[in-house]
Write a structure and sequence with these properties.
Blueprint lengths: L3 H8 L13 E3 L2 E3 L20 H12 L2 H5 L1 H7 L6 H26 L15 H30 L25 H5 L3 E2 L5 E2 L6 H12 L4 H10 L14 H17 L4 H26 L5 H9 L9 H14 L6 H6 L8 H34 L3 H4 L4 H12 L5 H34 L1 H4 L4 H16 L7 H11 L3 H31 L6 H25 L5 E2 L2 E2 L2 H15 L1 H12 L4 H9 L10 H7 L18 H13 L17
Antiparallel strand pairs: 1-2, 3-4, 5-6
Length: 671
């Protein structure tokens, strides 16, 4: 039992970062020093912590619920059996999505390190962290380009008439059609360029073939606005052309926004996520209510949800479910490790993982009602079926959806709301991607870069990524973006994910890792046997299965009618290898840094380094890890306070509480 005077002595020390204002519970007329202490300052003074638990949860939501949630999941659900697709999706969530999400949150929180420096757990495999850094770096370059497009459309929507409502603009071609063909379609006819409806029985075969060709090549105004006006797209990746300075300025604006949000690190980031994480739900709800009043809404929802049970026997359906759950939660990019590294040591990361991963699944499902409700309306307006309109990716966000909102009353309002939603979704993910890059660099040289120099690392990273992104502002930039999007984080992320889980589960030891989690939570993550089985066997097998499915399903990349040449495919694989290659390269570099027999060097590098473990001394004592004795070791508390820390630890260990964080319990008043 720690005496009450010890509490007063420690509390009077203003340099103690881990205690502040003890709360006293009266027991038999005396004060009980075992009561919790409320921490008002960061637990980790040098590195910083989230201001509160909600900021961390919202930052994870903002990171995981990205553009793919809106423009990919609904289409996959429709294509793979409607409501029946939810069965394989839920199974993959339980055995692949949630385990990976919880795994990375636990890993990052335990060590309070970024994706590279955290591999003190096994320095031989530090290349996994560098691979994550490369993946985040590449994603950050192209992802902000999508944000720039959203800015471009947002500015274009601030007008009384949307510019993609007609074919009377200088960028439109003869293939553009802005007239209502619904009545002609119902008569099984085709419309010519003069907007005259022709029935097959009333015209010659040759003229009918011309009409069919013209209608096959026809484009809606919103489609031509995106490709001809916004992108001014070229004929292929070989023809990049000049920089589109409108897009370049929008890209600069996107990077400026990200820079200022991250300028104060997680403190400013934590405030921004209140908006980027929550605002999209408001917009989705408003759009759902509006789309529910439109004709064709029910048809769209039926296409989205009607179960096709026979689809469950197709391997591709299960492959799509596994791939979608894997990439929608964004593991293996380093972002989750980065976000969790700013948690307090005893934060309940298990609860947070369940909340965020489950919320992501429900958000994707909810977004499907909005997307297919609008697509149903679009099909009704065009006099065709939903499957002829349904699409995914950038085509959905910047062609089909704008075309639909252009047909609504007060179209600019709905367009502004939609693109503001895309902005918040895109920026929410981009914040974490850039923070991952910056945190990785700062954690490698903490003495030089942490503190005041953080902003220069941020500025340098944002500037380099902006300059590299300018290639996507050219006429052929869309082809470059599609190439990086396809190869940067597909094969490579799967390989890195498998390596990460296997190293911890099989080399570091699954029971050892579960004990680390138990130390943070104060109890086992329920049920322990489940996590032991999943991380050791099932999740690696699922990742390998996804990788095999991806390779088997590999097709030459296309965009619209354009097929990428062989040279572009080779470049794509080199992009994928640029991250994976970090694993062997760093391993070889580490080995040659040491002296002695090769096998002995490898043996040393396979063991956790002496500074592996919790960042703070008090938590290292709890974990039984070697305490820092070198004052240059980052995050070490002054050693002259070891006796106080050990007394405080004894107090903690005497508590019979299931709280996830003993330093954040509620104040208890007198009985």
């Amino acid at each position: 039992m720690v005496h009450k005077d010890h509490y007063k002595a420690v509390n009077d020390d203003e340099e103690a970062p881990w205690v502040k204002e003890p709360t006293i519970k009266i027991v038999n007329g005396d004060r009980n020093a075992l009561d919790p202490v409320i921490v008002k300052r960061d637990e980790n003074i040098e590195r910083g912590n989230w201001s509160n638990k909600l900021e961390f949860i919202l930052s994870c939501f903002s990171y995981a619920v990205g553009l793919g949630t809106i423009w990919r999941f609904p289409y996959l659900c429709y294509r793979n059996g409607g409501g029946a697709f939810l069965i394989p999706y839920a199974i993959m969530y339980v055995f692949a999505g949630l385990p990976l999400f919880f795994f990375e949150l636990s890993f990052g929180q335990y060590a309070s390190e970024g994706p590279v420096s955290i591999w003190k757990v096994a320095p031989f495999f530090q290349g996994i962290g560098y691979a994550m850094f490369v993946i985040s770096f590449l994603i950050g370059i192209y992802y902000n380009m999508v944000v720039a497009w959203s800015f471009r459309y947002l500015f274009a929507s601030m007008t009384s008439v949307l510019p993609w409502t007609s074919c009377d603009n200088v960028w439109n071609t003869k293939n553009c059609r802005d007239f209502d063909i619904k009545n002609c379609t119902l008569l099984e006819g085709l419309v010519d360029s003069s907007r005259t409806c022709h029935i097959k029985s009333e015209v010659s075969d040759s003229f009918w073939k011309e009409l069919e060709l013209m209608n096959t090549n026809s484009r809606l105004p919103a489609d031509e606005y995106f490709h001809k006006r916004v992108l001014d797209i070229s004929t292929g990746i070989h023809d990049l052309g000049p920089i589109n300075w409108e897009l370049a300025l929008c890209l600069l604006l996107a990077w400026v926004c990200v820079f200022f949000v991250l300028l104060r690190g997680i403190k400013s980031f934590g405030k921004a996520v209140y908006f980027t994480a929550l605002f999209p739900y408001l917009i989705l709800t408003i759009l759902l209510i509006r789309s529910a009043t439109l004709p064709g809404f029910v048809d769209g929802i039926m296409f989205y949800l009607t179960p096709q049970w026979s689809k469950l026997t197709e391997a591709s359906v299960w492959g799509d479910a596994a791939m979608q759950i894997f990439f929608s939660l964004s593991p293996c990019w380093g972002g989750l490790i980065t976000l969790a590294s700013y948690n307090r040591f005893h934060n309940n990361c298990f609860r947070d993982a369940v909340i965020v991963a489950t919320g992501n699944v429900f958000t994707a499902f909810f977004a499907g009602f909005v997307i297919f409700g609008i697509i149903g309306f679009m099909a009704f307006e065009l006099g065709t079926t939903v499957d002829k309109v349904a699409t995914q990716g950038a085509g959905l966000a910047f062609a089909v959806y704008p075309e639909a909102v252009a047909r609504l009353p007060i179209a600019p309002l709905w367009s502004i709301l939609f693109f503001v939603m895309l902005l918040t979704l895109g920026l929410g993910t981009q914040f974490t991607v850039l923070e991952t890059v910056v945190t990785t660099i700062v954690d490698l040289w903490p003495h030089k870069l942490r503190g005041k120099n953080h902003k220069w690392v941020l500025l340098a990273s944002a500037t380099v990524m902006f300059l590299l992104g300018l290639i996507m502002c050219t006429n052929g930039g869309m082809y470059v973006l599609q190439l990086i999007d396809t190869y940067a984080a597909t094969f490579s992320a799967l390989i890195i994910g498998m390596a990460e889980v296997c190293v911890i589960a099989w080399h570091y030891g699954i029971d050892r890792f579960l004990d680390d989690i138990k130390l943070m939570l104060g109890h086992d993550a329920p049920p322990r046997w489940y996590w032991r089985f999943v991380w050791k066997f099932f999740t690696p097998v699922i990742i390998v299965a996804i990788l095999v499915f991806t390779l088997v399903d590999f097709r030459t990349l296309t965009y619209g009618d354009y097929t990428y040449p062989l040279e572009a495919t080779i470049v794509g694989f080199l992009i994928a290898l640029s991250s994976v290659a970090m694993v062997p390269i760093v391993a070889v570099y580490k080995v040659f840094q040491l002296d002695g027999p090769i096998l002995e060097r490898i043996r040393v590098l396979l063991q956790p380094s002496s500074d592996w473990g919790p960042a703070l001394q008090i938590h290292r004592i709890e974990a039984g890890a070697p305490t820092h004795t070198d004052s240059q070791v980052p995050l070490a508390l002054p050693n002259h306070r070891f006796e106080e820390l050990e007394l405080e630890l004894a107090t903690v260990l005497e508590r019979d509480s299931e709280s996830d964080n003993w330093i954040n319990m509620k104040c208890t008043g007198p009985n």
